[in-house]
Amino acid sequence: MNRGSRKTEIDVLVSEVGPRDGLQSVDRTMPTAVKQRWITALAGSGLREIEVGSFVSPKRLPQLADTADVVAHALTIPDLTVLALVPNLVGARNAVAAGTRALTMPLSASRAHSQNNIGMTPEQALEQVGLVCELKAATPGLSVEVGISTAFGCTLEGPVDEDWVIELAVRAAGRGADSVGLSDTTGYANPAQVRRLFTRLRAELGDRAGGAHLHNTRGQGLANVVAALDAGVTTFDSSQGGLGGCPYAPGASGNIVTEDLVFLLESMGLRTGVDIEALVAARTIIGDGLPGEQLYGHVPDAGLTKGFQYAKVD
Amino acid sequence: MNRGSRKTEIDVLVSEVGPRDGLQSVDRTMPTAVKQRWITALAGSGLREIEVGSFVSPKRLPQLADTADVVAHALTIPDLTVLALVPNLVGARNAVAAGTRALTMPLSASRAHSQNNIGMTPEQALEQVGLVCELKAATPGLSVEVGISTAFGCTLEGPVDEDWVIELAVRAAGRGADSVGLSDTTGYANPAQVRRLFTRLRAELGDRAGGAHLHNTRGQGLANVVAALDAGVTTFDSSQGGLGGCPYAPGASGNIVTEDLVFLLESMGLRTGVDIEALVAARTIIGDGLPGEQLYGHVPDAGLTKGFQYAKVD
């Protein structure tokens, strides 16, 4: 059964980041045609949003140098939100020129991480958010989301001040961001903190409070999802096979695994629109493009439970 | 720092089941002296309760045939609750004769699993609970806890009726059990279900509602811990290195990992009394006794977060 084709309503948006966050962390390049086939399969499993690449210098991330071609293909897939990461105005202009209409920008709360990751201070990155949001006036349908990186702690700086995280989020919204989410870039978050910060974020930003980008570095990823759900979060980033992490944060690896996340949500009665078996089948395409690449996830090994039922449409 | 030696109060009791649940799932036997050294190291890390073995037929579980010797050693460790599993009255008598004063009995909600696991119907197993509880009259200090196995689903039967699970728990308490917990023997639980069932259990049994025994078969273990905490659960079983599962439930493997559980709880501000680095160091002893045995866990690989702080004593 391909649930994606059924145009069901969903309760939670699972935003697949494997083709961007996953592939940028691998030290070899997946051929463009394989990326395109993988994205088609991911969308075919029912995923509604895929972050397909980054508009950054090909010298910095040669693995994503073909992002414009990947975007062009992804835009042909019906009912798919094609998201691309842009670090600054230059990247955003390239993304828009390639047809992208959904941009995501990182804004790191940790000064050391911000410098390492995008070579800017948080204030400089905020400036870029403002400039990118100005593109919206001339580009119908353009949306800009911001993700506050290292929102829960940083491998370089340790604990990150929560008031500062919320302040940055508010400032990013003030610069015109359509939504602002929080990212556990380095696998530091715990459920109490996730609940606290997302509750504050929603109190400050209302409908413009964005999703959760959580990592599984210390095995806490899905525990943090439960806490975020309690705080009202309805968008979660994840990566097929847990591919990727953040190459500029030492020791940080392990996006939460899309397969296990979808199982969690559907088991809890939250509709994702994703067919787990079709999703698991798409894993083989990663192996076609990156032979022998290590993939993670428990559900692909254990399978669905006997008598498993997807969340019901009301 | 050995936090265990500091006699701190704790918020959550982590009950280590590796020496019983872990070792019974391995198809070779850890030498008795290594088991004893491992238990000493686990207790030394601050763990307050360890399930050290089973009083069952050595033909059935030769890996645990030395349980009496292991109990005798564990009883010499100060401030440690030495728990042993007994399936029936015969096992309980042997356990008491060996000096054990804390017994745990499995009572499976799934008829098929009950038959496979302990060769009895649930009703027959309840009968044994009653007989074992009668031993308390003549054995000062004896406590009997019951764990409802397959409380969240069964690899053989699929979904398990929730009313029946609660009914069994109430009946076990009626037979004299000091506490009745719920076990996700086969890795079927989801957080919504965990919250629902433990909330009902506590409503029915009050202070005699027991702990959660959760598995990580589908990667949902710590997510379920968060839900159980929300429902007021304060005792969790886990296994060092995720060793073990249930050999009589096909496809069921993977206790939650003690190292990752303790990190979760302490990060959330919940005191366990356990020193994570001392706990991680104890992993090497498993390798001494079972060379090459696969261990799980993220925290042992990723290490503590920079600036990590244990939950504070008020």
UniProtKB/TrEMBL annotation, chains A, B:
Gene3D superfamilies: Aldolase class I (3.20.20.70). It holds the Pfam family HMGL-like. InterPro entries: Aldolase_TIM (IPR013785), HMGL (IPR043594), PYR_CT (IPR000891). Keywords: Lyase, Metal-binding. Residues 12-280 form the Pyruvate carboxyltransferase domain. Belongs to the HMG-CoA lyase family. It comes from the Bacteria. The lineage of its organism: Bacteria, Bacillati, Actinomycetota, Actinomycetes, Pseudonocardiales. This is Hydroxymethylglutaryl-CoA lyase. GO terms for biological process: ketone body biosynthetic process; L-leucine catabolic process. GO terms for molecular function: hydroxymethylglutaryl-CoA lyase activity; metal ion binding.
